[in-house]
Amino acid sequence: MDVSHLIDSLNDAQREAVCAPPGHYLVLAGAGSGKTRVLTHRIGWLTQVERVPPWAILAVTFTNKAAGEMRARLDHLIPGGTQGLTVGTFHGIAHRLLRRHWREAGLPESFQILDSDDQQRLVKRVVAGLGLDEARFPPRQAAWQINSWKDEGKRAENIEHGQHPVTRTLVQIYQAYEDACRRAGLVDFAELLLRAHELWLKQPAILEHYQHRWRYLLIDEFQDTNALQYAWIRVLAGQTGQVFVVGDDDQAIYGWRGAKVENVQQFLRDFPGARTIKLEQNYRSTSNILKAANSVIERNGGRLGKQLWTAGEEGERIAVYAAYNEQDEARFVIERIREYIAEHGDAKDCAILYRSNAQSRNFEEQLIQHDIPYRVYGGQRFFERAEIKDALSYLRLTANRHDDAAFERAVNTPPRGIGDRTLDVLRRRARTESTSMWEAALNELSSGSELAGRAKNAVKSFLVMIDEMHRTFAPPANGDEQVSALPLAEQIDHAIVQTGLRDFYEKDSRGNAESRVENLDELVNVASRFELTPDDIEAGLSELPAFLSHAALEAGEGQGESWDNCVQLMTLHSAKGLEFPLVFLVGLEEGLFPSQRSVEDEGRLEEERRLAYVGITRARERLIITHAESRRMHGTEMLARPSRFLGEVPPSLIDEVRPRVQVSRPLYAGRFAEPPPSLKEDQPVKLGQRVTHPSFGEGVVVSAEGSGAHTRLQVNFEGAGSKWLVAAYANLTVL
Fold first, then answer.
1. Which CATH class is domain 4-101+193-281?
2. pTM of the entire structure?
3. CA of 357: how far to CAs of 341, 413, 541, 569, in Å?
4. Is the pLDDT of residue 379 over 70?
5. What is the pLDDT of residues 581-602, one digit of tens each?
6. What gap in Å lies between CA 653 and CA 660, rounded to an integer?
7. How buried is 171 (Cβ within 10 angstroms: 0-12 exposed, 13-18 middle, 19+ buried)?
8. Which CATH class is domain 112-184?
9. Using CA atoms, how far apart are residues 693 and 731, in angstroms rounded to an integer?
């Protein structure tokens, strides 16, 4: 068999990884080094050269998008494509396992998945039910702690609290939350993995079946695995599984959500004979960008170590701009973007990366002012939008009456006279009787005395509506084999109309009625295109529960894709895995990046440095770094020092766009963290000076670039707006 297509396009290190004999491997894949190519070609090699049957391979990645890309590449790479292969996310694969083995896992067959928003709602209910002060135990933080414990494989009864009052109370919340989930047949994202892991530990026969089936495990983004995911891999591998992991310890930036970069080195200790293969040739960035990235990341200790290089061109030096303040920083960045668009025409090639979401506002204002389309990456995904979750809550309730999160969301949306007092009565009854909200409502209607007649009628109408929807979706057969359930798209359209959601959002008073109704229409379109997967069929899922699971798993990931021709704004965490021709890395100041909290903690500081490394390596052709001399933070004007990460870039790689101007700040010079030698105050122009121009009138100097007669000045004129002028020919008069 000719397998040249599997190896001809690979470099030496990639070929070594793809063609390696059976065994355990850690592939250290630097940024832009072709890790996805290696993973897919390794699968091709196993199936076509090593003759491994496709069903014996399990490929795990972290997002549905990455899994989809892997499947698409494999479809073109190997005969038969992905048929028989198991490719998916940790959560997706755990979900399939639990659907197939729901009884052994101790779950109801129709269990539903809670997304993070509904999880917080349920925790909020639990906190209130325990009579706790929400200010002391915020539901968001309590949910985060519960998920952290689950990621470590801990149940409430296994947590040692040493009579510490706060920890003891959080364990109490955890236990009550678990009880509520069990009654309602709900599982959250962390529970998917923990329950699947426990399934293997408690059911040796099931574990043995999957160990025998999935003998070749390939794990993507290994540096992002948490304690439970790593344990999950180890248990599944057992004594005979062969594990091939791909990751980059220099891009481990998710420690705050439980990822353990230590797993990379632990792998070499836990899997005997494991070999390390380094992918260091970069196919993304210019040489100067890579040299800067290497210089920054080498300051971190405990690395397995690699040095990115490219056979491509040296490229431009890294431009550094010292802004007067955050407004000046935004003006400079947007002016550069305008110049780029005028020259190249593609706004989507430009990305602005920042440490904190709050930094986007100034850039957005400037983009709006100059009528440049932009998109803030990291906003809500389609399935996270309020109107979509409202519609899905009705469908969830028709599928599972005990889904309390769905009940609470649907019961008074749109408003139908079931207010907080009525809900409090139902919540108390549900807690007292250890039942679901639905059962509590039924009991209150039949034997309760707390609700007034109007409230009872409103609750009854709601329950009747849900029951009628259920009968419409799946009418009783009555012996007629021709009767079948309504198609999924029609079910959703019916729910949107009959529940009053469409009318409610058409009259939306918040000014976005049209987009909300369009989103509801799109939900129907999404449902019309939805098809059951072989895994859904194998798990015995019908269309509705399969679609609801798909929606919940999609909502659990990061921001969706929308690559219109617009400037991309995003946090550095959101930028991982992306690349752009022109990148602006903004706000490189001590206390902002690195963050103030990380400065005193070496572990946190190293993760911040890895974040800087990720930011630098997003740039393909040009990287522009900015920092401000002063920045308003928490309502106060603060003097700012350039980030130590900027000082870690060799001066020979830096092109100072504008040497620091003579601003009257006597305290500033001594506040540098590690100032690059090129940052000097040698420019005889003062920002903030008022000037007048023969044609444009009066204005204020807000920025300057260059030196001497060729200095370019940016002046905001009162009547003519912002203008860039060359000092030698500007004919400006200082007022």
1. alpha beta
2. 0.78
3. 24, 30, 40, 9
4. no
5. 999 999 999 989 998 888 878 8
6. 18
7. buried
8. mainly alpha
9. 6
How far is residue 39's CA from residue 16's CA, in Å, rounded to a whole number? Answer: 12
What are the C-alpha distances in Å from 643 to residues 204, 458, 588, 646? 53, 60, 5, 5
What's the helix, strand, coil split of the chain in %, to 5? 50, 15, 35
Give burial (CB, 10 Å; 0-12/13-18/19+) of 316: middle
Query: Which class would CATH give 382-555?
Result: mainly alpha
Is residue 558 over pLDDT 90?
Answer: no
Question: Are the C-beta atoms of residues 222 and 210 closer than 8 Å to each other?
Answer: no
> For the chain, which residues make up each domain, given as ranges?
4-101+193-281, 112-184, 286-380+560-680, 382-555, 684-735
Q: How many CB atoms lie within 10 A of CB 568?
A: 23
In whole angstroms, give the CA distance from residue 90 to residue 169. Answer: 30
State the pLDDT confidence band at 675, using cuts at 50, 70 and 90.
very low
The amino acid present at 7, given as its one-letter code, is I
- The set of long-range contacts for 424-430, using a CB threshold of 8 Å and a minimum separation of 24, is 425/450, 425/451, 426/459, 427/125, 427/128, 427/129, 430/404
Averaged pLDDT, 60-89 = 89
Compute the distance between CA of residue 143 and CA of residue 124 in angstroms, rounded to an integer: 9
Q: For 67-202, list the strands marked E by DSSP.
A: 86-89, 112-113, 186-187
Angle between helices 420-433 and 116-129 (to 10 degrees): 80
| Cβ 59 vs Cβ 85: under 8 Å | yes
Angle at 422 between CA 421 and CA 426, to 5 degrees: 115
CA distances from 330 to 376, 416, 587 (A): 15, 47, 10
Nearest to 630 by CA among 592, 682, 683, 598: 592
CA-to-CA separations, 687 to 96, 362, 473, 692, 716, in angstroms, rounded:
62, 19, 68, 14, 11
Judging by DSSP bridges, how do beta strands 712-717 and 721-726 pair with one another? antiparallel
Phi, psi for 322 (deg, rounded to 5): -95, 105
203 phi/psi in degrees, rounded to 5: -125, 80
The token pair that represents 731 in the structure block: 């004919």
Q: State how far the Cα of 187 lies from the Cα of 464, in Å rounded to an integer.
A: 27
Mean pLDDT lowest among 228-232, 522-526, 623-627, 707-711: 707-711
627, containing H or E segment: strand 619-628
The answer to whether residue 200 scores a pLDDT higher than 90 is: yes
With respect to CATH, is domain 286-380+560-680 assigned 3.30.70.2750? Answer: no
4-101+193-281 with 286-380+560-680: one CATH topology? yes
Tokens of 597: 């909290």
3-class DSSP assignment, residue 258: coil
Q: Hey, which residues are catalytic here?
A: 35-36, 220-221, 251, 618
Which residue(s) pair with 726 in the sheet? 712
Q: What angle do CA 689, 692, 694 make, to 5 degrees?
A: 155
Tell me what pLDDT residue 682 has. 39
Q: Smallest Cα–Cα separation from 586: which of 239, 315, 323, 383? A: 323
pLDDT at 480 over 60: no
* 283: nearest Cα among 314, 306, 312: 312
Cβ atoms < 10 Å from Cβ of 461: 12
**In this structure, are residues 701 and 715 in contact, taking their beta carbons and an 8 Å threshold?**
yes
Q: What is the mean pLDDT of the chain?
A: 86
Statement: residue 677 has pLDDT above 60? no
User: What class is the 684-735 domain?
Assistant: mainly beta
Question: CB of 363 within 8 A of CB of 333?
Answer: yes
Q: How far is CA 669 from CA 592, 612, 629, 638, 642, in A?
A: 19, 24, 10, 14, 11
